[in-house]
Design a protein that fits this description.
Chain lengths: 307, 334
């Protein structure tokens, strides 16, 4: 396992390098002169030159990259064009709400999704399966922004159980996590159902029963772990989409997270902030894939031992 | 009358198919005595595996169910037993090994745990004692380095080794009856012989009955005391292993025996039984073997013969009009 994990970890390094190059190139890929864009339409040439120098745009490209990387590695992501604040500080204050939101959404989506999937598979073509299928398909079909607004209307405005937005208490996270996790939960429910059904047809499940094992042991120990191998892949991919979903949910629930920051900085063409966020989202994707790979190893001895 | 270890009577197993149902097992009778090896022989699709799964009541997750008959194991009818009590018998007094050693072990669990499961469950051993017993069982089935192998995963083992593990698992709670469903079919010929030898010696040591399901007559000759031949979900012939090879009565059995290639005989083509096993939903009306039988008579197409004793011989039965004619002639001349 140690060797397998090390291999995976080392494999991430070239990927991170490519990401850093692409994100660095972002400023140069914008059509036109970024300095001119940043300075605005009625800026003087002097102002533009000043910005160019300030951003180091007058240096050769490779020097700019080295500069960018050394700053990056020392935690300096530049300053916001709009506010002039250090981007690193801006991110630090925004990262926790987003992390909490994605983590909570994923946690309940995994838990409930798996539960629905397993129960549906075990009671295939009986009423628990129909109820589970109905729940999953409804969850999949409901658009997130609509669900968010409906939840606010019912539970915040009418019943007053939860705040309508912000991140003041733990209660603030409940409705946004439900909204954000719903689609993934449904997806996982469907996926774990089909994966579980497939596993339940395997020969070793019959062996388990032929040994006289209790049904919950057969399902919990023998079937679940095998079908998790497939579910983990989907969960990992979905986790990536959570990041996109958080942009919408953070807007609906006015959560001061990274998603909102992205929306705001795009509106204000705050390129340094957008650049930093791109880097964070890409890195996050890579990390999640790394975790999925490591989980494969934990779940499947064949992968662990063949490396 | 002495009680048989296993007595199957009138067993019928139906499978739901396209709104209706078909009988994969249509009234099967046989018995096994203590310490006896009964071979259950027939082509693929004749219902022999379904028979074994019906005895074990392992039809869950298949569309099949037992629709009639009884399976008496030491006098208890397994068909009527509540699932909870059935579970106490499975893997304990009544164990089973399967055809596919490559897929019959759980790929994500260590061998030791998979072996220990029935031991802890049925013998009530603790974790440590169960592990020791598992290692002991692995040694018993001739696995070298057993104490290391318990911590391996199935994919680290060859097919022959895995089948040994399956045998160790089945034997671990000292079953009174072992059902072996094509235990050597998926293995190399050299490994087949090893596994057969192993099963033979274990069976003698433990004085256990065995139901050996196979389509390989070589395996039958090697291991079995008596043989039941199945065709289209029915028993067509029953005989001692010696009688079966020396004097097969049913044309189907003759066909099976003739289709085994012989070393000394030079032939251009291998012998085979013409035609295929009929589809379960399109069974011929009379004798189910009639469309493929070279001795077919009018009577065969009109009415299905019953499984009747062959005159003058004990535990010798055949389901053929010819046998009944011979019986009648034998009766007249006597």
């Amino acid at each position: 396992m140690g060797r397998y994990a090390l291999q995976r970890l080392l494999g991430v390094i070239p990927l991170l390098f490519v990401v850093s190059v692409l994100v660095f190139m972002f400023l140069h890929l914008i059509p036109g002169d970024p300095a001119r864009l940043i300075a605005g339409q009625d800026a003087t040439l002097e102002e533009i030159m000043g910005i160019r120098q300030q951003l180091g745009l007058d240096l050769p490209l490779w020097k700019q990259y080295v500069h960018y990387m050394s700053n990056l590695l020392s935690g300096d992501l530049g300053n916001s064009i709009q506010s002039g604040l250090a981007v690193t500080d801006m991110l630090m204050s925004r990262v926790m709400p987003t992390l909490w939101l994605t983590f909570l959404s994923m946690a309940w989506a995994l838990l409930i999704g798996l539960l629905i999937g397993v129960v549906s598979a075990v009671y295939r073509n009986r009423w628990p399966d129909y109820v589970g299928t109905l729940a999953a398909i409804s969850g999949m079909s409901v658009p997130g922004f609509w669900l968010g607004l409906v939840l606010i209307q019912i539970f915040s405005v009418e019943l007053g159980w939860f705040p309508t937005g912000g991140v003041d208490t733990w209660k603030s996270y409940i409705l946004p996590s439900i909204t954000l996790g719903m689609g993934i939960m449904s997806m996982l429910a469907r996926y774990s159902r089909s994966s579980m059904l497939e596993t339940l047809r395997e020969d070793y499940i019959r062996t388990g029963r032929a040994k006289g094992m209790r049904e919950y042991v057969v399902i919990g120990r023998h079937a679940l772990r095998n079908s998790l191998i497939q579910v983990v892949t989907v969960a990992g991919l979905q986790f990536g989409f959570l990041l996109g979903g958080s942009v919408m949910v953070e807007t609906v629930f006015s959560i001061p997270g990274l998603g909102r920051l992205l929306v705001d900085s795009i509106l204000f063409r705050d390129y340094t902030v957008i650049q930093a966020l791109l880097l964070i989202f890409a890195t996050q994707f890579i990390l999640i894939n790394l975790i999925v790979d490591l989980l494969y190893g934990v779940l499947n001895p064949k992968i662990r031992y063949s490396s | 009358m002495t009680q048989h270890l296993l007595e199957v009577q009138g067993l019928e197993t139906e499978f739901a198919r396209g709104g209706g149902s078909v009988k994969a097992v249509a009234g099967v009778d046989f018995h096994i005595q203590k310490g006896e090896v009964l071979g259950l022989v027939g082509e693929s699709g004749c219902g022999k595996s379904v028979t074994s799964l019906s005895i074990m009541r392992l039809l869950k997750d298949t569309p099949g169910k037992i629709s009639a008959g009884s399976v008496r194991f030491e006098g208890t009818d397994l068909v009527k037993l509540p699932e909870k009590e059935m579970r106490r018998i499975r893997g304990n007094d009544l164990a089973m090994i399967f055809q596919e050693p490559m897929t019959s072990l759980n790929p994500v669990l260590r061998i030791g745990l998979q072996l220990a499961e029935p031991i802890m469950m049925h013998l009530g051993y603790g974790r440590k004692k169960a592990r020791e017993h598992a290692i002991h069982m692995l040694r018993l089935v001739g696995i070298p380095r057993a104490e290391e192998l318990v911590d391996d995963y199935p994919h680290q083992l060859s097919g022959g080794m895995r089948q040994r593990v399956m045998i160790a698992m089945a034997m671990s709670c000292h079953p009174k009856l072992l059902i072996a469903d094509e235990p050597t079919t998926a293995l190399d010929v050299t490994i087949q012989a090893q596994i057969l030898d192993l099963m033979k010696s274990l069976k003698e040591e433990q004085d256990m009955g065995m139901l050996l399901i196979t389509h390989d007559l070589g395996v039958v000759a090697e291991l079995c005391d008596r043989v039941v031949v199945m065709y289209a979900g029915r028993v067509v012939e029953e005989a001692s292993v010696h009688e079966l090879f020396a004097n097969p009565r049913h044309p189907y059995t003759r066909g099976l025996i003739h289709s085994v290639p012989k070393l000394r005989q030079k032939v251009r083509r291998l012998e085979s039984i013409k035609g295929n096993v009929p589809d379960l939903s399109q069974m011929p009306h009379g004798c189910k073997f009639a469309p493929r039988c070279e001795f077919v008579m009018e009577q065969c197409l009109a009415e299905e013969p019953r499984l009747l004793p062959v005159e003058g011989l004990e535990e010798r039965k055949s389901r053929c009009w010819l046998t009944q004619q011979e019986n009648a002639e034998g009766g007249e001349s006597a």
